[in-house]
Design goal:
19% strand; alpha+beta; 46% helix; Beta-Lactamase; 5-stranded mixed sheet; 6 helices
């Protein structure tokens, strides 16, 4: 993979379209297990050193740290999850909304960066006609790859 060129981030409009597409009709503990297990299978297949966490209404339903994940990944998940819980959008969506305003989340939000991280990898569990009820988060890869891993797993979970 060529890491010399900067990542091209999707626009807020593209990220909002993902959130609209990836809504579920319900989200149970069994759904969290199935989604988390699919993320783990993908990460193992790809040799990705990630941590995965899925929560609903603040309750952790699924949590794993695969080989190569570090304690820092748990901290990143907590910080990215706080962003999703506060803003109701993916952590990448929140990052991009500040970037498209010509600033950074850290400069514009005034929130403590030790507690909040608007970096890709946390995505709201959106129940259609209800709204956000939880978060699916991955940490361990570059932020855009973390985000894409979650989005791909949600698409598979929804049969898309």
């Amino acid at each position: 993979m060529d890491t010399s060129s900067p990542a091209v981030f999707p626009s807020v409009a593209e990220l909002a379209a993902e959130e609209h597409e990836l809504q579920v009709t319900s989200f149970t503990n069994d759904d969290a297990w199935a989604l988390g297990s699919a993320l783990v299978a993908t990460a193992r297949r790809d040799g990705a050193p990630v941590a995965v966490e899925i929560s609903r209404n603040g309750q952790r339903l699924f949590s794993v740290a695969l080989t190569g994940a570090t304690p820092d990944n748990a901290s990143w998940i907590e910080r990215k999850t706080r962003v999703v819980d506060r803003f109701g959008h993916s952590s990448l969506h929140v990052r991009q909304s500040w970037a498209e305003r010509g600033t950074t989340f850290e400069e514009g939000s005034g929130l403590d960066p030790r507690l909040y991280a608007a970096h890709g990898g946390a995505f709201p569990v959106l129940v259609r006609d209800v709204g956000p009820v939880g978060v699916v988060a991955v940490s361990g890869l570059p932020q855009l790859e973390d985000h894409r891993m979650v989005v791909a797993a949600l698409r598979v979970h929804l049969g898309r």
